[in-house]
Write a structure and sequence with these properties.
By secondary structure, this protein is of the alpha/beta class. It folds into three domains: 4-350, Aldolase class I (TIM Barrel, Alpha-Beta Barrel); 379-472 and 630-664, Rossmann fold; 475-621, FAD/NAD(P)-binding domain. Helix 5 packs parallel to helix 6.
Length: 667
Amino acid sequence: MNDPLFTEICIGKVKLKNRLYMPAMHLNMCKNFLVTEQLCEFYRERAKGGVGLISVGYATVDELSGTPSNIGAHLDEHVPGLAALAGVIHEGGSKATVQLNHAGRYNMSFFLGGKKPVAPSPVPSRLTRETPEELSSEQIRETVRRFATAAKRVRDAGFDLVEILAGTGYLISEFLSPLTNNRLDQYGGSLENRMRFGLEVIRGIKNLVGDDFPILVRINGNDFMDGGIGPAELLEFAVSLEAEGVHALCINVGWHEAQVPQIVTQVPRGVFSYLARDIKQRVSVPVIASHRINDPSIARLLVEEGFCDMVALGRALIADPFFPEKARTGRDKEIVHCVACGQGCFDHVFKMKPVECLCNPRAGHEYEVQPGKTETPKKVMVVGGGVAGMSAAIAAAEQGHHVSLFETGLRLGGQLHLAGAPPGRGEFLVFAEDMACQVVLHGIKVILNRSVDGQILAEEKPDFLILATGGEPITPPIPGAQQEHVVQAWDVLAGKAVTGRRVAIVGGGSVGIETALFLAEKGALSGEEIKFLLVNGAVAPEKLYQLATKGSKEVTVVEMVDTLGSNFGKSTRWGMLQDVGRYGVKTLTQAKVLTISDKGVRLEHDGEVRELAADSVVLAVGTRSANPLQRVAEELGISCQVVGDALAPATVFEANHQGYNAGRNIG
């Protein structure tokens, strides 16, 4: 039976070898708008991995449309770099396109040399906290012209088609939306007028480069903005784009200001694909579904069931560039799935750093010289089967060393099993399975249920030792913290501790917040239960919301500083804190716990001492390193390196990268 993902499809006259599309993502890898070796090698790896079409970008159309870390397409001097980028993608066997975009009011004067960003109307942006200048009619015509000349540069550089971004809150969607378009001329008011700018962009491109150069447009299926442009009007925009001669549509969701999570791990896989299906039913050109598609099974289902003609794999291909080839050859289980954490991709954009990946330590580093296979394989022993230990073992095995991995517990994964316990965090459990699968594929000897001590080290006599023995939760010096009803957050998440109805959580960092949500959902109805009641009309929708968010416990988080979840990434934190409110978790910041009793906690808050009643107290105050073997190894004369929490409390991202670098750089 033919795999629906690996049948050919055409966009215009361009034939693609499969239905997999890598959408444009801002990677922060350009220097002053110029393509770099880092960017080329990043995309070379993805093309080698077998994806049918790669979109790079976004790329700029004029001086106000982006930042120097964007790919430039607004000057002729940008063409050689674009040509080099098209070349490496074609060498890898993929077709290539460039996404052109104008940021509009999402740009910042900081990047524009003090100039103000421009937009249809001077409506302030919650994202940038700036008010843009309104474009004049003459400036609009010039911007249309600049889109067209940028598209010509894309064609001249050797790309197979051009993509226009007409969603996500950028300039074209700012014209579309009544939230950001208050104009009284021919570009404002009615839907026909608000669509005018976007359609003129398409018309201008076709007039300059002709009908034979295909145009792909990425639009929102829903902007998720109150008072914005909803699905009905976006459907009409899609129909109008096809009438204007567009050759394919890629459907995404949301603006950057939207309060609906779009790319993070709590978003169910493929949940927004219904919007692509709605548009596909109205147009005849190929439609691409996107957002949170990170597994071949969901991708195949969407194509088979007519939701779309192609699927977009964005961060899934950062995590595993060879996802397409593994899927094509029946090796789905070997894929390392994106966990949608946003830590290395989306959060790095905010930090103005090049994109990296929690799951794939090589991402963003493809241009660096990689050590070849060693000519003198060593006996390498890794102690600790968490993410740092597994990553170290895999990297060492890739270098040709003989690797054994010792784990105290009965399974690999370590704290990934805790990270994956809270609601909406299950992708971390998948990552634990993926890493364990890679350990097996690399022929690493695994010894489970074995605590390593000096005697075992002396018996094994490794040439090199990597210590990834992890950490342990801290018990703070609070009077009463040793009582039976006081438990660690780790034990709660692992299912080893039972809590009462009223729970006080001491510590409002990421672990405290995740534990709070884990407990707050106890007793709330599941998705399956909500669907049953909704479909059968058993409960009113407003009551269903209450049943979905109201659990059986009263949870209060107590945090000493004034910020909750400060160690979450920027792209994750706001959604987690939004859920804290939805699930009725109470929070006390700038509160110091003084004592713990069998009745609850005594704390100081706002200058007053008060009692917080609690049946159970959960400690989530941090981690300390557990590293008992380094001194023993040094006494035995064994060369060693410490990684992950054993070195210092680390994130999953840091642990994976530290482990990988340790294993890769064994002498």
